[in-house]
Amino acid sequence: MIKNRLAPEAKDMHDPAAEHTDAASTAVAQRARPRTDALKGVQKGARARRTRKRRASPTGGLNKSSGGARALKYPRHTLDQVLRTPRAILDQNAGHPCTDAEAARFLSFRLTGVFRSELASAIKYRLLERPEAGKVRVTDLAKKILRPQNPKDELDARREAVLQAPDIGTVYAHYRGENLPDRQFLANALIDKFKIPTDKVDEFVSIFKETLGAAKLLEEHDGQTRVLDVSSEPAGQAASEESIKRLGKTAKIEKGDTCFVMMPFADPIGRYYTTLYAPAIQKAGMVAVRADADIFATGKIMDQVRDAIDKAKVLVAELTGRNPNVLYELGLAHALEKPVVLVSSNEDDVPFDLKHIRVIYYNVMDPFWGEKLITKVAENILSALTNPEEAIFRRRPD
What is the mean pLDDT of residues 376-383? Predict the structure, then answer.
């Protein structure tokens, strides 16, 4: 009853202070609303600009590593995986440019981040290109793979796609003509030299090996994986010259710096000095020296050889035939902790305890083997100067 009696009175009560507070709150809210609406408009415009920028970028803006510290340059898919998109555009759109959403529909997909990542990979292999923001077009390179006009088209185009792909092409150029190092050494090189994030190394190695395998750029040799050298092909030549220029800028070479060549004097290998090794050393910007007329004078021969090895900035060792003098000089070079570029035409001629080091293998049955070897030796000389840990035997600390 008390409640009933008080209710009508409470209902009719009038509080001027509360009314003033409500009015003030309403006024504040009304004044704040334009600023809030303006802020929302700015935020919406910023999101739209970021979206347009991401869609207009060649990679789709989706290549941040899990840590966000470095944008991943390499394609996140194998070459065979991303070929399905240009194939679908050719089959269902006659190869004409289309939007990203249309490309997804051709494959019965939705336009999600996953599909955008695949588009970005196809662009990195140069299978697709962007004629304008939000659209993709099939490239001539993709057409050579998918619709070859002669027997060589597909393989040549696959190899060019490998060379064009960021990081994949760079790692290929580094190891071409060599065996891939053991798993841990390869991982270390990918992290330290090529800046592949540690948590992405397994993914990169898988994509790298599968893509090179599909382009027939890998061969198995006695349990080792050999990276074939196709530098005589136009795309390979361009990549090799670019690599030499890049390494030449970082290698500290002064006028008169020498490269000592350890090799047999007798033909046929003996003549490689003037036809192959001296030109390769000159290509690297250095002076070639060999232990014959170049250094011999009066005095003990081995003292002069040791002095020439010690003065050389880098050395080249031709291991074909296991020449005893070459192996002795190589031992001196290693004892002096000099960077050495190893070369052989036969894997069996490389001593077991050197097989984990970078070795250039050449095949004299290849019609272009000479020019390939000149370029590769020049490149490895510069690489040995830039990254001496690859080519120097360090003494263990006492």
Answer: 94
- The pLDDT tens digits for 351-370 are 988 877 899 999 999 888 99
Query: Which is nearest to 375 in space by CA: 390, 360, 363, 389?
Result: 360
**Residue partners of 360: CB distance under 8 A and separation at least 6:** 177, 178, 341, 342, 343, 344, 373, 376, 377, 380
* Residue 235 falls inside a structural domain: no
Where residue 290 sits, what CATH number does that domain have?
3.40.50.450
What are the pLDDT digits (tens) for 103-154?
999 999 999 999 999 999 999 999 999 999 999 999 999 999 999 999 999 9
Q: How far apart are CA 34 and CA 41, in angstroms?
A: 10
Q: Burial level of 81, CB count in 10 A (0-12/13-18/19+)?
A: middle
Identify the three-state secondary structure at position 232: coil
Q: Answer for the pair 247, 379: CB distance below 8 angstroms, yes or no.
A: yes
What pTM does this model have? 0.74
Asked, for residue 271, whether it belongs to a domain, the answer is yes
Domain extent for 342 = 254-390
Range scoring the smallest mean pLDDT among 300-304, 314-318, 381-385: 300-304
Examine residue 288 and state whether it is found in any structural domain, yes or no. yes
Contact 147, 90 (CB under 8 A): yes
288-293, long-range: CB < 8 A, 24+ apart: 288/258, 288/259, 288/261, 289/258, 289/259, 289/260, 289/261, 290/260, 290/261, 290/263, 291/260, 291/262, 291/329, 292/265
How many domains is the chain partitioned into structurally? Answer: 1
User: What is the Cα–Cα distance from 393 to 172, expressed in whole angstroms?
Assistant: 24
- Has residue 88 been placed in a domain? no
Closest CA to 41 of 52, 30, 49: 49
d(CA 126, CA 384): 31
Question: What is the mean predicted confidence (pLDDT) over 287-316?
Answer: 83
Q: What angle do CA 252, 257, 262 make, to 5 degrees?
A: 115
Contact 173, 240 (CB under 8 A): yes
Count of beta carbons in the 10 Å neighbourhood of residue 41: 10
Q: Which residue has the higher pLDDT, 344 or 300?
A: 344
